[in-house]
Design goal:
Shape: globular
Strand content: under 5%
Radius of gyration: 21 Å
Number of domains: 2
Oligomer: single chain
Helix content: over 70%
Number of helices: 9
Structural class: mainly alpha
Length: 243
């Protein structure tokens, strides 16, 4: 059974089906009558909201009279900086843009489903897998850039050269398992949280939904933080000379 289209997905399929089919053809897929899916459209919505937020913030930046939004963003910056320095070390500022972007995207995607007319894209495994794959390629690329290709590959061989034939395949499987772990953890928590909230919305009128919506917000924040923290740990391990 096809998924039920939310209003903004219906708009995309009614008026932007050509663009959607062009994108499908780029990846070798056949054109469809209604190519846009909810989780794809909602990712565009999340990115658009974040871009509008920071475009608005940029016009309000002030050294003498910072507003509430600027204070909030400065607190967020200090938080990400402290966490990244703890996990990565003195090179942390080089990677903070990725960590902050990852956290804000996942957090917004987790919580946007609380708006009744919208849907959380992170309740779809394709979205969480995309975030996990991006993290996988990012930390490996940073490791290669920081250490050099040969030295980085040597990390997979273990502490002693004669253990390399055993350790190398184990390390490869371990790193690939990180993609699965990141994908399933975020997807399962967000999907389960949304389903529980929907069930209680149908069973009760006010108290139950409010409680579980609060729990959903808590889980959404925690899962975004855990994803970012694991990304920091992986980057720290990849760029550390002592790794």
């Amino acid at each position: 059974m096809p998924e039920s289209e939310i209003w903004i997905t219906r708009f995309f399929n009614d008026y932007l089906a050509g663009a959607g089919n062009a994108a499908l053809q780029l990846v070798g897929m056949h054109p469809q009558a209604r190519p846009w899916a909810n989780f794809v459209v909602m990712q565009f919505v999340v990115v658009a909201l974040l871009m509008l937020l920071f475009a608005f913030l940029r016009t309000r930046l002030s050294v003498d009279k910072p507003g509430g939004l600027q204070h909030l963003c400065e607190l967020f910056y200090d938080f990400v900086k402290g966490q990244s320095e703890e996990q990565v070390g003195h090179d942390a500022p080089h990677y903070m843009a990725f960590f902050a972007t990852l956290f804000l995207f996942i957090l917004t995607a987790n919580l946007i489903g609380l708006v009744p007319i919208l849907e959380s894209p992170t309740t779809n495994a394709s979205v969480t897998c995309g975030c996990a794959v991006a993290t996988f390629f990012y930390y490996n690329l940073m490791g290669v850039i920081k250490q050099g290709p040969l030295r980085y590959l040597a990390h997979f061989g273990g502490p002693m050269w004669w253990l390399a034939p055993l350790m190398f395949p184990i390390e490869i499987v371990s790193h690939l398992a990180r993609v699965l772990s990141l994908t399933v953890r975020l997807y399962a928590n967000m999907f389960a949280g949304e389903q529980v909230t929907l069930v209680f919305l149908k069973l009760t009128k006010l108290i139950g939904p409010v409680i579980f919506m609060g729990l959903h917000i808590f889980v959404g924040v925690i899962q975004a933080y855990i994803f970012m923290l694991l990304a920091m740990v992986y980057v720290g391990g990849a760029v550390s000379h002592e790794h």
